[in-house]
Model the fold of this input.
Amino acid sequence: MRFDTGMRAYTAKRVEEIEQADILVGIPAYNNQDTIAHVIQMVSHGLYRHYRNSRAIIMVADGGSTDDTREVAKEFEIKPWQEKLVSIYRGPGGKGSAFRSIFEAAKRLKVKVCMVVDSDLRSITSDWVKYLLDPVLDKGYEFVSPIYSRYKYDGTITNNIVYNLTRALYGLRIRQPIGGDFAFAGGLAAYYMEQDVWQTDVARYGIDIWMTTNAINNNFKICQANLGVKVHDAKDPGESLGPMFRQVVYTLFLLMEKYENEWKSVRGSRTVPVYGLDKFLEPDPVSVNLDRLVDGYKTGFRQFRSFYEEIFCPDCFGQLKKCAAMSKTKFAMPVQTWVQVLYETAATFHHWQHNRQQLVNLMTPLYLGRVASFINYTKKMDSAAAEKVVEDQAEVFEQYKDYLVQCWDTSAKKPLK
Done:
């Protein structure tokens, strides 16, 4: 069912009663009863410490939690002169639908700035509010993307796919394009709300990369905010990929088609201004299961071998075949092979008009293999040293940009049956 609004009637009425605000902080939530109070507390304290003379609204956009998330959020007492909205959004279940309702509230309230933070954060501090909002309010930026100190095995989709492609495609070194915690000017929130994407994967996990890519290609003024350590409900990449991986990658590839004229001519990349903290903090470890990752790669290769041979060039397929024979501790997928995998898959996605979701599904085992390779390569490194490996990998993606364009313009593969 299509909805013309992301807000239910009672939320819209409450927004109408408030009439106008300066700052809106949105918190998308779903079954976060253990963390939601801490997030609201830190947001409330930050608004009180740094913006007590501004009218601020905290909006929890819930996806129909079956635990006590909404009850905890409603009962938590915020600082004086702040308003709190606890709502259930309308639309497809997912983070993007929550954001849509937040964007809509921002537009109706005519806010100067809107900020969104994840509801499972354990490391958020009151200063995050200042780090995210100041660049918009004081420096004229329109989109603020986060930078975190993350453990080397946290954020594997970002480290191995999203950062590399976003940087190589559009020429900006935005380190966390799907970080989850952003700020943007009120006008950009209104722009986002008006786009007709709310029945697609953007309404789910595709929202973060969609926001970032649109901000880049529509020439909004962008910076980054260093927030320090990010500790949240991190997940083992071999255990709980699922919808997030598929929706992020699918959206990323669709955006490549939409902005083809913009990225084809881009070569190299440039830094993006960073505000907030000025140091790297070593985060706590995140556990991963190397056996599961390698087994997932090998099982997927056996199952989809014929498809991989059809999709990828002989050199790329030959390397993938070699990987399938490697032991767990020796598993190593060359960076160049991983670049070929992503670029050739993106080109195949472009040329196929059917079974695109199946094509993205075929990437999952290869992604597990690349994560396993990264783990083996960096196992004796701290997170700061592993970050250098991520940066080196991103440079290889830039070096092969002409190869992407060649595949994009000439590859004409038959779709999977």
Notes: The first strand starts at residue 23 and ends at 29.
